[in-house]
Prior knowledge:
The protein is mainly β. It has helices at about 125-135, 140-150, and strands spanning about 20-25, 25-30, 40-45, 45-50, 60-70, 70-75, 80-95, 110-125.
Amino acid sequence: MNATPDNTQLDAPSDTAERIRADYAQVRKLGNWTTARTFAVRARRGNVVLDLRSPQIPAGDIDITVDFDHAMMKLLLPNDAVVDDEDLRWTGRGQVKDHQAPTDGQPGRTVRISGEIRHGEIRVNRDGVAILSAMFTKEYVRDALAAHREGRYPTIDDPARQV
C-alpha cells in the first residue's frame, strides 16, 4: 500500500471538481462531456483520456489534480493552451510529453497539473493529433453512427464544430 504524504491536504481538489477514476481500466471523456474547470484524476495501472477542447468549458484556467500509480493520461487540448506542470511530484520514472506546446507570444488558457505521479506519464495532444486520437475510439464510431442517423456531424473529433 502506498502511503501519501501529509501535505496532500493542501492541494486536495475542491468539492466541485469533476472526479475521474481509472483502476486497471481505460476511461475516456471525449467531446462536450463537461462544463467543469477543476478535475481530480486518480488512476492505478490505468489510462485516462481527457478532452478539454470543448467550448462549453468556461473561460479561465483549468486545474487538474492527479494521483497516478503506473498510469497514463492523455490530454486533448486546444492549440493555444499552455501546460503548467511545476507542482507535480514524481516518484520513479515518468514525464509530461508536450511536443506541440505553443511557442508564439499569445498563449491561451493555462492547464495547471498538480499532484503525484508514481511511474506514469502525461501526454498532451493538440490540433490534428488530438483529432486523430479522438477518432480512433469506439466512442467516435458510436457518435458518427448516431450523427449519420440524425443528419448531423459527429462532435467527438472536434467539440467546437458548429453543426
